[in-house]
Amino acid sequence: MDFAYEVSRSLAAVEGSLLVVDASQGVEAQTLANVYQAIDNDHDIVTVLNKVDLPAAEPDRIKEQIEDVIGLDTSDSVMISAKTGLGIPDVLEAIVKQLPAPVGNPDGPLKAMLVDSWYDTYLGVMVLIRVIDGELKKGDTIKMMGTGAVYPVDRVGVMTPAFVATDRLGPGEIGVLTASIKEVADTRVGDTITHDKKGCTEALPGFKPAQPVVFCGLFPVDANDFEDLRSAMGKLRLNDASFSYEMETSAALGFGFRCGFLGLLHLEIIQERLSREFNLELIATAPSVVYEMEMTDGSQFEMHNPADMPDVVKIKEIREPWIRANIMTPDEYLAQS
């Protein structure tokens, strides 16, 4: 769930999906979460059963499970083994035959969705886009509709999987552009890209900036490593705009950073990268969420850090985040009345 928004934008950028299910494990929780997002996006879905080479594989049973649990027709399911290469050409054939071709107006104003971005040491920020309408070519001046930023396009191309430069990108194509963008934070997933002049007037739906929801403090075990930690944070931020941090001090732990994450998995990933890639030994405080505080004088503020807790006699109300959840459980795990 930490990266559910990025998944939703990736699904919104294409016309169809491959539903890959382990032929020995069957339908799992993450399978359901993602397939329902694909169905909500009106995707045509090709079911693919992987690991059919394993002795424990039960493709016929898994087909029935997919039909019963999800409701998808599995008569045209593709049987593959990613390990041995069995059935891979059939997957490519199914993509061509079963998924709809993209449509778009090549003569209309440029409208493209920003699907992803990453930092390249030599080229700066590389932006992965899906062109909906219009055309994009080297030398065009583009505008990010969400942020209002304007950039000249240095190069366009496609990933094959290495970057290959092309003359232009047209409707239905997914490609990459570079535009002397310095930070990944300037390119927000889901934003709409158009021409600065004579661009589209209406942005693509669904865009929202990434908002950290889990916060914790990260402190170096050795106080002398603080500057190394600051440098490591800056480098990670180059490639992950959803990760935020600000300096904080603790009487017990010394100097460190208060960091914001998309969820607990995101927290673990960042902590592990700091440890492995930068050889830092860290102390992490207990993760917390943002609390809304309403005071007796009528004022309100958001509390990100337990250290900012005001005097309890001045607090009228404390509100914490809740979620609305659907829990899906197989019948055999429910108590029989």
CATH class membership of the largest domain: Alpha Beta
How do the strands line up in the largest sheet?
Answer: 8-7-13-4-5-12-9-10
CATH architecture of the largest domain: 3-Layer(aba) Sandwich
**Which percent range describes the beta-strand content?**
25-35%
Number of helices: 6
Helix content: 10-25%
- Count the strands? 20
CATH superfamily of the largest domain: P-loop containing nucleotide triphosphate hydrolases
Mean pLDDT, to the nearest integer, reads 89
C-alpha geometry:
globular
Biggest sheet character: 8 strands, antiparallel
The CATH topology of the largest domain corresponds to Rossmann fold
- Uncertain segments are none
Report on this model:
With 337 residues, the chain is α+β, with helices and mostly antiparallel strands. It folds into 3 domains: 95 residues, Rossmann fold, CATH 3.40.50; 85 residues, Translation factors (Elongation Factor Tu (Ef-tu), domain 3, Beta Barrel), CATH 2.40.30.10; 71 residues, Elongation Factor G (Translational Gtpase), domain 3 (Alpha-Beta Plaits), CATH 3.30.70. The strands form 5 sheets. An 8-stranded antiparallel sheet has the order 8-7-13-4-5-12-9-10, with helices on one face. A 4-stranded antiparallel sheet has the order 15-16-14-17, with helices on one face. The protein has a 3-stranded parallel sheet with strand order 1-2-3, sandwiched between helices. The longest helix has 15 residues. It is globular and about 65 Å long. The mean pLDDT is 89.
